[in-house]
Amino acid sequence: MSLYLTRLYLTLLLKPRPAAKERGDVPGWVLITVMTAGLVVAIWTLAKDQLVEMLRSALSSVANK
Fold first, then answer.
1. Structure pTM?
2. What is the maximum alpha-carbon separation in the chain?
3. Consecutive sets of 10 residues in the chain, 65 residues long: mean pLDDT of each?
């Protein structure tokens, strides 16, 4: 009986499963990507000078070490 159950378990475990027919939430990911790009553009527009200065400061501190 135990050998039968082991074989049955292994047969079911190793049986190939059909591919999922679900494509996922593509419109949701597109919306997230577009909103993220919009946030980056908005932040860059509002704080361009400060961001450029921070980058220059960081790069110069690394170059001077």
1. 0.48
2. 76
3. 75 70 75 94 94 93 82
